[in-house]
């Protein structure tokens, strides 16, 4: 006789998320002192509570229902991105958020990341179900579908403009195509073409500012200029962030004692706040916790028996690792500043809620083999 338990949770994943929540709240509190807004940590607590409720709801719904309605979710996400461009008020010259009175802002592109993973997983899974021995033509059709589904939200998000999230879309697409089972020669072909295009664009950028602006516009020039700003370690935000981290030494200045101001300490540069407060030892502890979480997700790929779940996990892993490396890398001057936040740690309602929805999906996958016990 077997008992059915629908709502078991993967203990190590849950404990890690709780630790992330604690680290996030205390670091945001410290960051809020720099910008004189001590309500941020309270809002982050509320977002985490809502996020856990959302994760529970996802567990009650089940992944099968979500997978079956993947294209409906995708269509709703595209409509939201279109409405943002048409009707949302600009904030700092960017149309990325719906303003909800009394609640705050909602950023549809954050939720689109999860939707894109789900819809691409379904497309790739159906490809394998319908093609037992795919040829080159079949693989090319799959690539066109995946690129097309990624291209639409990428263009809409680029127009907001939000280059950072567009890069995440592309990372998701590339990761999921890589594990889809298609021939690796495709990556050589498309990778070579991509590098050629990037090389030509950068060639124009470095040789003639006027020609670049005439060809691509001032807005794109400024975006490229910001991306390349890290190469000479210039910029007030980067210099002060790196100074704060370096001054922390082994054990840091102590909680709430960030020694120097830098912009966006609660979001883009949250790691600089943590590093200055808790030093090298604390930073290594946080990095170890992040690595532990990522390795747990990687181990899930081997535990699940369903291909669509494997594709979903792979897309999530690609997204998270890219954001983790990009955020920390740009904070310490190793990568260009793209405005990408640190998952589960940085302040932000939309991003955190999207990660908690993702967590509910992961709980469903990881606990499938635990739901039936003797």
Commentary on this structure:
There is one protein chain. The protein is an all-alpha fold. The chain has one domain (3-373). 70% of the residues lie in helices and 3% in strands. The protein has helices spanning 11-35, 40-61, 63-68, 70-87, 108-130, 136-158, 163-178, 185-207, 209-216, 218-227, 236-247, 270-303, 307-331, 349-366, and strands at 3-4, 98-100, 104-106, 372-373. The strands form 2 sheets. A two-stranded antiparallel ribbon has the order 1-4. It is globular and about 60 Å long. The N and C termini lie close together (7 Å).
Compile the SSE list and pairings.
Blueprint: E1 3-4, H1 11-35, H2 40-61, H3 63-68, H4 70-87, E2 98-100, E3 104-106, H5 108-130, H6 136-158, H7 163-178, H8 185-207, H9 209-216, H10 218-227, H11 236-247, H12 270-303, H13 307-331, H14 349-366, E4 372-373
Antiparallel strand pairs: 1-4, 2-3
């Amino acid at each position: 006789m077997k008992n059915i338990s629908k709502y078991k949770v993967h203990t190590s994943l849950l404990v890690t998320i709780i630790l992330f929540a604690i680290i996030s709240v205390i670091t945001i509190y410290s960051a809020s002192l720099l910008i004189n807004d001590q309500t941020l940590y309270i809002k982050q607590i509320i977002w985490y509570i809502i996020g856990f409720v959302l994760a529970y709801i996802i567990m009650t719904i089940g992944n099968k229902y979500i997978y079956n309605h993947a294209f409906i979710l995708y269509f709703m996400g595209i409509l939201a991105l279109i409405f943002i461009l048409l009707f949302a008020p600009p904030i700092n010259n960017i149309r990325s958020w719906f303003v909800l009175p009394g609640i705050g802002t909602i950023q549809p592109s954050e939720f689109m990341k999860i939707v894109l993973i789900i819809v691409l997983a379904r497309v790739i899974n159906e490809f394998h179900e319908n093609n037992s021995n795919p040829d080159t033509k079949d693989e090319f059709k799959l690539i066109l579908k995946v690129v097309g589904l990624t291209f639409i939200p990428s263009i809409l998000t680029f127009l907001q403009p939000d280059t950072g999230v567009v890069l995440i879309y592309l990372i998701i697409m590339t990761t999921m195509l890589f594990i889809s089972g298609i021939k690796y020669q495709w990556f050589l072909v498309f990778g070579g073409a991509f590098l050629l295009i990037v090389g030509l664009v950068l060639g124009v950028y470095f040789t003639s500012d006027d020609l670049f602006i005439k060809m691509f516009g001032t807005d794109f020039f400024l975006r490229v200029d910001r991306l390349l700003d890290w190469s000479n370690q210039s910029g007030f935000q980067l210099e002060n962030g790196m100074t704060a981290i370096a001054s922390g030494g082994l054990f840091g200045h102590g909680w709430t004692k960030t020694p120097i101001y830098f912009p966006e300490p609660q979001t883009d540069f949250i790691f600089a706040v943590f590093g200055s407060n808790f030093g090298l030892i604390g930073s290594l502890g946080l990095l170890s916790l992040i690595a532990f979480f990522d390795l747990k997700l990687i181990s899930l790929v081997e535990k699940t028996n369903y291909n669509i779940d494997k594709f979903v996990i792979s897309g999530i892993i690609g997204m998270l690792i890219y954001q983790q490396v990009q955020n920390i890398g740009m904070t310490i001057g190793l990568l260009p500043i793209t405005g990408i936040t640190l998952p589960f740690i940085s302040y932000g309602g939309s991003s955190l809620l999207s990660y908690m929805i993702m967590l509910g999906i992961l709980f469903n996958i990881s606990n499938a083999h635990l739901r039936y016990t003797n």
